[in-house]
Amino acid sequence: MFSKACEYGIKAAIYIALQSLQGRRTSLKDIAREINSPEAFTAKILQQLAKSKIVDSTKGPSGGFQIEPHNIDKIKLSQIVYALDGDSIYNGCGLGLEECNADQPCPMHDKFASIRDELKAMLQSTTLFELATGLEVGLTYLKR
């Protein structure tokens, strides 16, 4: 459903949020290890998240990635998905057809439209804080 970059981006943002809630910056190396992603790929993803102002990046020996704690409960999953995948998840055809729309629907168009609407509502209502605190208390996990 999400691109690999988006999956890693969501995991990275959750991990950075958790570290930030504990008053710590985290390094690229630690993030890549924690989310099981190649460092170079993770760096590109984090660069996009920083450009979209979802994460903050500080260079230098005491640098790393963080999210201001007062912003963690304001960041929605939809912002992360949009920063990495755009809005294609809300508009694309369930079968991957280029010409699928209400006037020329694919066989799954109407059923997939309701799923897309539910997904959009979930992404727009779920905060990074909610996911990070679930991870913190052991209710959710980032690794397989």
UniProtKB/TrEMBL annotation:
GO terms for molecular function: DNA-binding transcription factor activity. It holds the Pfam family Rrf2. It comes from Cerina litoralis. One of its GO terms (cellular component) is cytosol. Gene3D superfamilies: Winged helix-like DNA-binding domain superfamily/Winged helix DNA-binding domain. InterPro entries: Tscrpt_reg_Rrf2 (IPR000944), WH-like_DNA-bd_sf (IPR036388), WH_DNA-bd_sf (IPR036390). This is Rrf2 family transcriptional regulator.
